[in-house]
Design a protein that fits this description.
Structural class: alpha+beta
Largest sheet: 4 strands, mixed
Helix content: 40-55%
Strand order of the largest sheet: 1-5-4-6
Number of helices: 18
Distance between the termini: 53 Å
Shape: globular
Strand content: 5-15%
Length: about 375
């Protein structure tokens, strides 16, 4: 049986980037000799190497290199952990960005072919622009004001409406908690909460579904601010941390003003109300997280820096112990439109049924495997 000579350093690299370990991988049928491969005592067969590649989400071709490649994020990285940038990106994050870039490229060609106009607001703002004025422009463009949110019953419904309005304005909004449609590859909100891919014809926002619904509201607002600037980037959007980069500070400020305008926050204050109670009440009113509201209460002078810091830490600890509601994937057929965005799904399915896009290509970018699934989604979206 022929063996494939692989540099052990490549095996270690693949495990590190995928977050896997020797113990868990060695339990798999074709990887029981993994320790010997890592030490250089033995080499895997091609079949075993392919199994290792699948388990670590790594292309087989990488294992024929002499040394690990240098991988970098294909878009600017604005994430922070405290005050430090996050050095490494997981394979799940990288693959999600690559997949969204593939979808964006497809939609750009589709838009050109069908004569769609450019999305006017992409790149319409500058960092020197007034935050309140930009937020007001976003509110008008998206038609997402307090009147439209006042009677919404839940954060989930508010988020759903926010996404619908963003897509209606020309943004491809994709919300998923896994890589593609692979439920075995969950996305970690501690690594990233969202990213934006700026483009005049196919602006795209991705939101990590593993985060809370209230937090997703702020993430969407933050990434939309990135599109207004015309700047792609990946974010972790921590409202308690003042970002070191001007772009993130500006996007955070615009997002907060968009969702909870300071003028309205100030009018809603009740003298003598405890800070925690005010935060909970206003979070329900604005349909945003209590963490965002706490920040706004500090911004309008209702809470001092010290009071804000203590309340924020206490609220963060409380939220960490809450059991997430509705965090499951649900019926795949009901979540496909959210995973890839209704605007994108409708375009792909329409193009496929009209014979412009091959079914195999549609399956690939939508993450489906069967023709029946595509037709079922087409019916649900009203394409047929």
């Amino acid at each position: 049986m022929s063996r494939v000579r692989v540099q052990p350093v490549l095996l270690h690299w693949a495990m590190a980037r995928s977050g896997t370990d020797v113990a868990s991988l060695s339990r798999k049928k074709d990887l029981k000799k993994l320790s010997d491969w890592l030490s250089g005592k033995a080499s895997p067969t091609l079949r075993q190497l392919e199994a290792f590649a699948r388990a670590t989400h790594t292309g087989v071709g990488y294992f024929f290199l002499d040394a690990p490649p240098v991988e970098s994020l294909p878009i600017p990285d604005f994430r922070v952990m405290g005050s430090r940038g996050i050095e490494h990106a997981s394979t799940n994050l990288l693959d999600t960005i690559y997949l969204c870039q593939q979808r964006q490229n497809w939609y750009r060609e589709y838009a050109l072919m069908n004569g769609e106009p450019e999305v006017a607001f992409v790149g319409s703002a500058e960092l020197s622009d007034d935050v309140v004025e930009v937020a007001a422009d976003m509110r008008r463009t998206l038609e997402f004001d307090m009147e439209s949110r006042r009677d919404i019953g839940s954060w989930t419904d508010a988020l759903r409406q926010f996404i619908r309005l963003a897509e209606q304005a020309g943004v491809l909004v994709m919300v998923s908690g896994v890589v593609g449609s692979n439920s075995h590859r969950p996305l970690d909100p501690e690594e990233f909460r969202g990213f934006a891919l700026a483009d005049a014809l196919a602006p795209l926002v991705f939101i990590n579904q593993k985060d809370t619904k209230a937090a997703q509201m702020f993430t969407l607002a933050h990434e939309l601010a990135h599109l207004w600037l015309g700047k792609s980037g990946i974010s972790d959007v921590d409202v308690a941390v003042v970002p070191g980069r001007r772009v993130e500070r500006w996007c955070n400020a615009v997002a907060a003003e968009l969702l909870a305008p300071a003028e309205i926050v100030a009018r809603q204050l009740q003298e003598g109300e405890p800070l925690a109670e005010a935060a909970a009440r206003l979070a329900r009113y604005f349909k945003v997280s209590t963490l965002v509201v706490l920040r706004r209460l500090k911004d309008v002078g209702f809470a001092s820096e010290r009071e804000f810091t203590a309340a924020y830490r206490a609220e963060l600890e409380r939220l960490r112990h809450l059991k997430p509601k509705g965090s499951g994937g649900g019926d795949f057929y009901n979540t496909l439109g959210a995973r890839v965005g209704k605007r994108f799904a409708t375009a792909v399915i329409t193009s496929t049924l009209e014979g412009q896009t091959p079914f195999t290509e549609a399956f690939d970018i939508l993450g489906v495997r069967k023709t029946a699934t595509l037709f079922q989604e087409a019916e649900r979206l009203g394409v047929v």
